[in-house]
Amino acid sequence: MILPAIILVISLVLLLNFFVTYCRLQVAAGRRVELSDAAREATGIQGQGVSGDEFLRLRRLVDLCPETDGDTYKLGLIRAYHAFLGVVRVLCGPVMPAAVAWATSERSGCSYYAAVALDARIAQTRRIFERDFLAMP
Amino acid sequence: MLGPTDYAVWFVSFALEVFVVVYSLSRRQFLRYLTLNIYMLAVAIWTVLCYYFVEHFGLASIEYRYFYYYGDALLTVLLYFSVFGLYQHVFAEMHANKYVRGASLMLLVSTGWVSFLVVHQSQDHLTSRFVIQLSQNLYFVGLVLTYILWGAVMKLRETRSRVIHLVLALGIYFSAYSATYALRNLFPDFAMARTVLPPLVGTWLPLAWAYTLWKVPEEARLATAQLAASHAR
Questions:
Q1: Cβ A18–B222 below 8 Å, yes or no?
Q2: Of the given ranges (A42-46, B122-126, B171-175), which has the lowest mean pLDDT?
Q3: Distance from CA of A136 to the nearest CA of B (A)
């Protein structure tokens, strides 16, 4: 019984490690994208500073637009990551301020990622509108 | 008894496995990621055969169980070659391919030898508990190999986005499966680890690899230096 228990603990720790790294890469890639003026106007975001608490509002806005370029898979992943960071913040709040600061920064990255996804979807919707409706005789 | 959701997850997995192979062939990338594609092809064939066994013998039949667990163990060993294929991608610039090939051959021989010894010693009681232990150990070895590979990716400051995504997806897959089998070993009556988790984890790898090959261009680059710095802190 000891070996399976050790394997379980190590596997869960490494699973968390791989999952967090995978999601951090997505968030870091999102941070390198500049938001368009249209997206800033729609979301009210100034600069790169978005609160992590804005994530759900931005997700709801993203859901209003049609899917673009198969982004649902990554958004689902970021949503899970955001929820995980919320748990980290709650659990580590009283004892590990550094972990809370990291979680807060990453949650902000998740929100920015959602804003970038929203931007892409707005642009795609606009393209569809121009192609299918404005071009109609 | 399998419900519509089980069949849906099964079908999605199969479709993604086929997608990976067909997409690689259509983009002339089959040989570039040869071991990954061979694995996906083998899993797709195994999925079809599992369906055949369920339809003809039933989900609870001994035939299906034997086919499922021993097929899964063989596929895990095949997946080791995919890990070594990724090792070759990571170490390509160091011209260390012959060492990687040597290491993979050694691992194959030692895995075969240890498995033979284990099966030989347990041939009187090749029970489902035994195969769960075997699978748990095989997945754990895969996890260790992938973690070492990830260490090499970070150390060598690998920047190819595709390789990084493929390795991380593999790490999540191996660790999730290893944890699932350990859970089953510890708590044999925990139904979720037997019915819900395996198909979901099984869908993860073809989903993540399909997404990576489809959406992450070969020339895309990522800065792992940032991650390495924060790991070191």
A1: no
A2: B122-126
A3: 32
B163 touches chain A (CB under 8 A): no
Rg, chain A, Cα only: 18
With beta carbons under 8 A apart, name residues in chain A contacting B171: 14, 17-18
Residue B221, SS3 per DSSP: strand
Compute the distance between CA of residue B45 and CA of residue B75 in angstroms, rounded to an integer.
11
ipTM of the complex: 0.81
User: Containing domain of residue B105, as a range?
Assistant: 4-232
Q: How many helices (H) and strands (E) does chain A have?
A: 5, 0
> Residue B127 phi/psi, 5° resolution?
-90, 175
Domain count along chain B:
1
pLDDT per residue over B62-96, tens digit each? 888 888 888 988 898 889 889 988 888 888 777 77
Q: How far apart are CA B202 and CA B39, in angstroms?
A: 13
* pTM listed for this prediction: 0.84
| Amino acid identity at B21 | V
Are the Cβ atoms of A8 and B183 closer than 8 angstroms? yes
Residue B150 near chain A (CB below 8 Å): yes
Region at B28 (left for phi over 0; alpha for psi -120 to 50; beta for the rest): left
Tell me if chain A has a CB within 8 Å of the CB of B121. Answer: no
Residue A96 backbone dihedrals phi, psi, to 5 degrees: -130, 85
Who contacts A99 (Cβ-Cβ below 8 Å, separation ≥6)? A88, A92
Q: What is the pLDDT along chain A (137 residues), one digit of tens a residue?
A: 788 899 899 999 999 999 999 898 888 888 888 888 888 888 888 776 788 888 998 888 888 888 777 778 888 889 999 999 999 988 887 788 888 898 999 999 999 999 988 888 888 888 888 887 776 66
Contacts of A113 (CB under 8 A, 6+ apart): A26, A27, A30, A31, A78
We report the CATH number of the domain holding residue B223 as 1.20.1070
